[in-house]
Predict the structure.
Amino acid sequence: MSFRLLPAVAVLAVFAAALAALFRWSLLEFVPGSLQPGGLTLANFRAVLAPQYVGAIRDTVVLSALTTVLTLVCAYPVAYALARTASRRVRSLILVLTLAPFFTGAIVRTYAWVLVLGNTVVTWPVPMLFTERGVLVGLVHFSMPTMILILAAALSHIDPVYERAAASLGASPAHVFRRVTLPLSMPGIVSGGLIVFAWTLSAFPTPELLGGGKVKMIANVVKDLGLDSFNWPGAAAFALLALALTLALLTLVGRLSSDRAA
Amino acid sequence: MTTAVVELRGCTRDYGAVRAVDALDLAVHEGEFLALLGPSGCGKTTTLNLVAGFVEPTAGRVLIDGEDVTGRPPHLRGLGVVFQSYALFPHLSVRENVAFGLRERRMAAAEIERRVGDALELVRLEPAGRQRPSELSGGMQQRVALARALVYRPRVLLLDEPLAALDKKLREGMRDELRTIHRSVGITTIFVTHDQAEALGLADRIAVMNRGRIEQLGPPREIYERPATRFVADFIGASTVLRGRAVAADRVVVAGGTLHVGGRALRAGADVELAIRPERLRLVAAAGDNVLDARVEGLVYQGAQTEVTARLGDGQRVLVFVGEPAPVPLAVGQTLRLFLPGEAFMVLDDR
Amino acid sequence: MLRLAVVLLLAFMTLPTVVVVAVSFNPTAILSFPPAGLSLRWYANVLTYPQFQRAALNSVLVTGMAVALALPAGTLAALALERGRLRGRHVWAALFLSPLVVPGVAAGLGFLILAAALGLLRSRAVLVAAHVALVLPFVVRSVWVSVRNLDPALERAAASLGATPWRAFRRVTLPLLRPGLFAGLLFAVVVSLNEFVVSLFISNRVTEILPVAMFTYVVNYTDPTIAALSSLFIAATFVVVWLADRYLDLGRVFLRR
């Protein structure tokens, strides 16, 4: 191993120690009213599937799936324009508008949606704030920059000559898209979709602020248990569930992209 | 005998299971221009890197001026290197690039100034000193790279395919320029190339490399006219290799005809391989000594000559260059009578 | 058709930003849109609210220290990844990027438990350690791209001209890595300044950084103070992104063209 890796390895070691602590506590017994845990137990993982939490897990998966699909649909046209525009000006404009929310941070962005969804700007025909609908809008907005960048990267790898070839063979623009562009951008769609899904599974600030305590996703449960009830073992088990789901999905992304490379 | 300026003794270099250079011995003499010539993957660039110190030998020693420099890092070897990609520093101007080695040698500013000016003059690039390398044409970049490598008067100049990135016209101009510069500076030079025309036109001696070994080492004329192995005969110029059986010390039977072969004495009854350059064959009217018949299979008209592929009676193929205008009209299927002069044959080592 | 869709979608992307800025000038504590007048009182509120002052100072401290540690560590790692004689290069690369994929609540709770075990619950050290790990992937990635675009012959050329490895690094490698280092620095600063979830777990009223203070404020109050602070954030971010695009050509960074 090169000595140049040592500082970075030290950083990772601290990070690994934190995850190890999390793992250890997930196996310790929670003693209500005390920060001292009891002996070894699997009770925390059994509690994850208790009736009061199953709803949160189901909501998380459903919201994440909906977010993924909606984000894909909304991000595709923007990504296409970004990858295909000839003008550097337009490209810069789209990039800046896309990246700015990426750089503004979760709290500012989520607070902005509190304002928009909270009947200050327009009066919504149906309640938005503190509902799953509102959380969904916030999650889609949150996932857009990532998805746009992944799709645009995939699209910019497609030589426009294929599209011209399809047109010369008599395909209408719609057919060119369906039979050539879309299939060729499939790698980006799959990895973008999986990454957004994985990220959304552990989303925290959006459901916390836009859900207002009425919509709970896995991460909110972790925060409630860990920071409000001081049930660190229970929170640790939930956090590991989120970690496991994320890792499983991202392993799938890696597997798929290395299959394509082979 | 004078000591060699650069000497490799039994140098071997392995990359994992691949042997790039195999027990190579090579001595380069004072003021000599030596070309390492071979196809890609033959080990010529690795050999150059062994001299430069970018790669250390797995076994063997590298000597410069008789001194063992194996294991000495490149910055202490005092050589000049021109890279295939030129490797001009993109963040420095032309002058700063050329001055780089002088500054590493902690030379006084005035001296640096003077030497950089001289070096740029040598390569006729004085006006471009303030520009960035990326603003120059390929040929100009090449000359900057040369000036940068020569300016601190290194003991040896190493050139790694320096002309490969240039287009044909520029390449020929640069070839002449390299020769002129070598003559005026007189520096010992090792030159890596896969282009035989470059090697034949520039080098005092050529080392033809194949599979990490030197197949033949000698002056260009000797390499071209007396290739020692089939590989060299194939790689340098076009040639036809004919298989036959020796019937006497100077006589070989090929395709039913008898050929008188000059040069080395053959062992009667042995199978031999003879190589002949296509420009040495001649069309004749009458049968006689050293004349074989062949049926034309292909014609490629090239202006000054026509390349004729023909087949002998026993199926062996011969390549003939017929100067234009051709003495007889050429057509596919026609039978030609070929005269193969005995002194034009090269007897190949049996390997 | 496509153009209209793109414009509408970009409007969707920008809508919250516009609303936040508009609301920040609202003269009353009750939010209304469009605002009934213009007022800077919420900006004054931001600048005088003691908890924001304290949190801003914490942000500067934590981000400054985290970036100062992560930049050299990540740069060395990127150099080793591309240039070192390294076995399992891909495994190392994946490891250095791994903090990116760990959910914030998992990392946050892990650091909280670790801090409690070490008796560091009231210390900024844990915050800094967590931020270093979280920004490291961005530094490694940005610098790695630059290292990969660097022709290895340039370092060899410097060596052949007599430069020691250290001098070659100083005079050739480092100047050519500047864009990558700058991009890494930019990402690290932005990510650290905006980090929220992990920091929420491991900070208290004394050590908390700006996003955590803002979160607490949003949960407890409804006046437009946060809109004003957000607007300041947004303005700063736009300037940074615009500068980055101008000098780094973000299209090249993200689209690999």
Summary: Chain C has a mean pLDDT of 87.
